[in-house]
Amino acid sequence: MLKAVKFLACAFLMMVGVASTQQAQAVEWKEHVLGDENAPVTMIEYASLTCPHCASFHTEVLPEIKEKLIDTGKLKLIFRDYPLDGVALRAAAIAQCAGEDRYFGVLGMLFKSQMTWARSQDPIASIKEVVRFAGMTDDAVDACMADQELIDGIVGSRMRGEQEFNVNSTPSFVLDGDTIAGSRDAEFFIEKVEDLID
Protein backbone atom coordinates (compact mmCIF):
# COMPACT_ATOMS: atom_id res chain seq x y z
CA MET A 1 0.00 0.00 0.00
CA LEU A 2 2.80 2.43 0.92
CA LYS A 3 4.39 1.79 -2.46
CA ALA A 4 1.17 2.79 -4.16
CA VAL A 5 0.98 5.94 -2.05
CA LYS A 6 4.53 6.87 -3.01
CA PHE A 7 3.66 6.47 -6.68
CA LEU A 8 0.52 8.55 -6.26
CA ALA A 9 2.44 11.20 -4.36
CA CYS A 10 5.11 11.48 -7.04
CA ALA A 11 2.52 11.78 -9.78
CA PHE A 12 0.66 14.36 -7.75
CA LEU A 13 3.75 16.47 -7.11
CA MET A 14 4.64 16.39 -10.79
CA MET A 15 1.11 17.48 -11.66
CA VAL A 16 1.13 20.56 -9.44
CA GLY A 17 4.79 21.29 -9.92
CA VAL A 18 5.60 21.32 -6.25
CA ALA A 19 9.18 20.71 -5.30
CA SER A 20 9.51 22.61 -2.07
CA THR A 21 8.14 21.77 1.33
CA GLN A 22 5.22 23.58 2.86
CA GLN A 23 5.81 25.58 5.99
CA ALA A 24 3.41 26.02 8.89
CA GLN A 25 0.80 28.71 8.39
CA ALA A 26 -2.66 29.59 9.66
CA VAL A 27 -5.44 28.14 7.54
CA GLU A 28 -9.13 28.93 7.52
CA TRP A 29 -11.50 26.00 7.08
CA LYS A 30 -13.31 25.92 3.77
CA GLU A 31 -15.28 23.46 1.71
CA HIS A 32 -13.58 22.34 -1.48
CA VAL A 33 -15.16 22.05 -4.89
CA LEU A 34 -14.23 19.56 -7.60
CA GLY A 35 -15.47 20.58 -11.04
CA ASP A 36 -16.94 23.56 -12.85
CA GLU A 37 -18.52 26.13 -10.52
CA ASN A 38 -21.25 26.60 -13.16
CA ALA A 39 -22.10 22.91 -13.54
CA PRO A 40 -25.88 22.35 -13.72
CA VAL A 41 -25.93 19.81 -10.89
CA THR A 42 -24.30 20.04 -7.47
CA MET A 43 -23.62 17.14 -5.14
CA ILE A 44 -22.36 17.57 -1.60
CA GLU A 45 -20.39 14.76 -0.04
CA TYR A 46 -19.99 14.38 3.73
CA ALA A 47 -17.16 12.01 4.56
CA SER A 48 -14.76 11.02 7.31
CA LEU A 49 -11.15 10.16 6.59
CA THR A 50 -11.30 7.13 8.92
CA CYS A 51 -14.46 5.75 7.30
CA PRO A 52 -13.66 2.64 5.17
CA HIS A 53 -16.76 3.11 2.98
CA CYS A 54 -15.67 6.70 2.30
CA ALA A 55 -12.25 5.41 1.25
CA SER A 56 -13.88 2.89 -1.08
CA PHE A 57 -16.00 5.61 -2.63
CA HIS A 58 -12.97 7.82 -3.26
CA THR A 59 -10.75 5.09 -4.66
CA GLU A 60 -13.28 2.97 -6.58
CA VAL A 61 -16.35 5.07 -7.43
CA LEU A 62 -15.28 8.70 -7.62
CA PRO A 63 -12.81 8.21 -10.52
CA GLU A 64 -15.67 7.11 -12.83
CA ILE A 65 -17.94 9.91 -11.59
CA LYS A 66 -15.14 12.37 -12.23
CA GLU A 67 -14.57 11.06 -15.74
CA LYS A 68 -18.22 10.93 -16.79
CA LEU A 69 -19.83 13.77 -14.84
CA ILE A 70 -17.31 16.19 -13.34
CA ASP A 71 -14.80 16.42 -16.18
CA THR A 72 -17.66 16.80 -18.66
CA GLY A 73 -19.06 19.81 -16.80
CA LYS A 74 -22.29 18.12 -15.72
CA LEU A 75 -21.59 17.95 -12.01
CA LYS A 76 -19.62 19.75 -9.36
CA LEU A 77 -18.78 17.93 -6.14
CA ILE A 78 -18.52 19.83 -2.87
CA PHE A 79 -16.55 17.97 -0.24
CA ARG A 80 -17.42 18.68 3.40
CA ASP A 81 -15.74 17.20 6.44
CA TYR A 82 -17.76 14.97 8.73
CA PRO A 83 -15.13 13.47 11.06
CA LEU A 84 -16.26 10.42 13.01
CA ASP A 85 -13.45 10.51 15.57
CA GLY A 86 -10.45 12.47 16.79
CA VAL A 87 -8.02 10.97 14.29
CA ALA A 88 -10.34 11.81 11.40
CA LEU A 89 -10.67 15.35 12.75
CA ARG A 90 -6.91 15.84 12.79
CA ALA A 91 -6.50 14.22 9.38
CA ALA A 92 -9.13 16.59 7.99
CA ALA A 93 -7.18 19.55 9.43
CA ILE A 94 -4.01 18.30 7.75
CA ALA A 95 -5.78 18.01 4.39
CA GLN A 96 -7.15 21.53 4.78
CA CYS A 97 -3.60 22.80 5.36
CA ALA A 98 -2.40 21.23 2.11
CA GLY A 99 -3.77 24.26 0.28
CA GLU A 100 -6.32 24.77 -2.47
CA ASP A 101 -4.26 23.30 -5.31
CA ARG A 102 -3.17 20.25 -3.31
CA TYR A 103 -6.31 19.57 -1.30
CA PHE A 104 -7.92 16.82 -3.37
CA GLY A 105 -4.54 15.25 -4.07
CA VAL A 106 -3.76 14.95 -0.35
CA LEU A 107 -7.32 13.84 0.38
CA GLY A 108 -6.93 11.07 -2.19
CA MET A 109 -3.58 10.02 -0.72
CA LEU A 110 -5.09 9.78 2.76
CA PHE A 111 -8.06 7.74 1.58
CA LYS A 112 -5.86 5.45 -0.51
CA SER A 113 -3.51 4.77 2.41
CA GLN A 114 -6.24 4.74 5.07
CA MET A 115 -5.78 1.06 5.97
CA THR A 116 -2.12 1.73 6.69
CA TRP A 117 -2.29 4.78 8.93
CA ALA A 118 -5.70 4.27 10.54
CA ARG A 119 -4.67 0.87 11.88
CA SER A 120 -1.21 1.83 13.02
CA GLN A 121 -0.35 2.27 16.69
CA ASP A 122 0.45 5.92 16.03
CA PRO A 123 -1.92 7.11 13.29
CA ILE A 124 -0.67 10.70 13.33
CA ALA A 125 2.95 9.63 12.84
CA SER A 126 1.79 7.45 9.95
CA ILE A 127 -0.19 10.31 8.42
CA LYS A 128 2.92 12.50 8.63
CA GLU A 129 4.79 9.89 6.59
CA VAL A 130 2.05 9.97 3.94
CA VAL A 131 1.72 13.73 3.58
CA ARG A 132 5.50 14.19 3.61
CA PHE A 133 5.32 12.94 0.01
CA ALA A 134 3.07 15.93 -0.72
CA GLY A 135 5.67 18.31 0.71
CA MET A 136 4.12 18.85 4.13
CA THR A 137 6.63 19.08 6.96
CA ASP A 138 6.07 17.64 10.42
CA ASP A 139 6.02 21.20 11.80
CA ALA A 140 3.29 22.18 9.32
CA VAL A 141 1.24 19.13 10.30
CA ASP A 142 1.64 19.87 14.02
CA ALA A 143 0.58 23.48 13.43
CA CYS A 144 -2.52 22.35 11.56
CA MET A 145 -3.61 20.06 14.37
CA ALA A 146 -3.04 22.84 16.94
CA ASP A 147 -5.04 25.42 14.98
CA GLN A 148 -8.20 25.67 17.08
CA GLU A 149 -10.05 27.90 14.61
CA LEU A 150 -9.44 25.33 11.87
CA ILE A 151 -10.57 22.51 14.16
CA ASP A 152 -13.70 24.49 15.08
CA GLY A 153 -14.43 25.03 11.40
CA ILE A 154 -14.28 21.28 10.70
CA VAL A 155 -16.53 20.49 13.65
CA GLY A 156 -18.92 23.19 12.42
CA SER A 157 -19.04 21.50 9.01
CA ARG A 158 -20.23 18.31 10.66
CA MET A 159 -22.81 20.12 12.79
CA ARG A 160 -24.24 21.97 9.78
CA GLY A 161 -24.54 18.68 7.91
CA GLU A 162 -26.55 17.25 10.77
CA GLN A 163 -28.75 20.32 11.13
CA GLU A 164 -29.34 21.21 7.47
CA PHE A 165 -29.44 17.77 5.81
CA ASN A 166 -29.96 15.27 8.65
CA VAL A 167 -26.60 13.66 7.96
CA ASN A 168 -25.78 11.07 10.62
CA SER A 169 -23.44 8.64 8.85
CA THR A 170 -20.68 8.58 6.26
CA PRO A 171 -20.47 8.75 3.43
CA SER A 172 -23.63 10.76 2.85
CA PHE A 173 -24.50 12.75 -0.23
CA VAL A 174 -26.89 15.62 -0.86
CA LEU A 175 -28.17 15.64 -4.43
CA ASP A 176 -30.99 17.95 -5.55
CA GLY A 177 -32.00 18.45 -1.93
CA ASP A 178 -32.20 14.74 -1.13
CA THR A 179 -29.86 13.20 1.42
CA ILE A 180 -28.49 9.83 0.34
CA ALA A 181 -26.92 7.79 3.15
CA GLY A 182 -24.28 5.25 2.28
CA SER A 183 -22.10 4.72 -0.74
CA ARG A 184 -23.48 3.67 -4.11
CA ASP A 185 -21.87 2.57 -7.34
CA ALA A 186 -20.99 5.09 -10.02
CA GLU A 187 -23.94 4.09 -12.20
CA PHE A 188 -26.37 5.17 -9.47
CA PHE A 189 -24.98 8.71 -9.41
CA ILE A 190 -24.66 8.91 -13.19
CA GLU A 191 -28.33 8.02 -13.67
CA LYS A 192 -29.41 10.49 -10.99
CA VAL A 193 -27.43 13.35 -12.50
CA GLU A 194 -28.49 12.56 -16.08
CA ASP A 195 -32.14 12.55 -14.95
CA LEU A 196 -31.70 15.95 -13.30
CA ILE A 197 -30.13 17.42 -16.45
CA ASP A 198 -32.89 16.01 -18.68
Kindly estimate the percentage of residues that lie in beta strands according to DSSP: 5-15%
Tell me the series of helices and strands, N- to C-terminal: HEEHEHHHHHHEEH
Low-confidence stretches: 4-24
Strand order of the largest sheet: 1-3-2-4-5
How many helices? The count is: 9
Number of strands: 5
Description:
The N and C termini lie far apart (41 Å). 39% of the residues are buried. The chain has helices spanning 2-16, 52-70, 86-97, 103-112, 114-117, 123-132, 138-146, 148-165, 186-197; strands spanning 32-34, 41-47, 75-81, 172-175, 178-181. The chain has a 5-stranded mixed β-sheet, with helices on both faces. The protein has 9 helices and 5 strands. With 198 residues, the chain is α+β, with helices and mostly antiparallel strands.
Pick out its properties.
198 residues, alpha+beta, 5-stranded mixed beta sheet, 9 helices, 5 strands, 55% helix, 13% strand, globular
Secondary structure blueprint with pairings:
Layout: H1 2-16, E1 32-34, E2 41-47, H2 52-70, E3 75-81, H3 86-97, H4 103-112, H5 114-117, H6 123-132, H7 138-146, H8 148-165, E4 172-175, E5 178-181, H9 186-197
Parallel strand pairs: 2-3
Antiparallel strand pairs: 1-3, 2-4, 4-5
Helix pairs in contact: 1-4, 2-9, 3-4, 3-6, 3-7, 3-8
Brief digest:
With 198 residues, this protein is an alpha+beta fold.
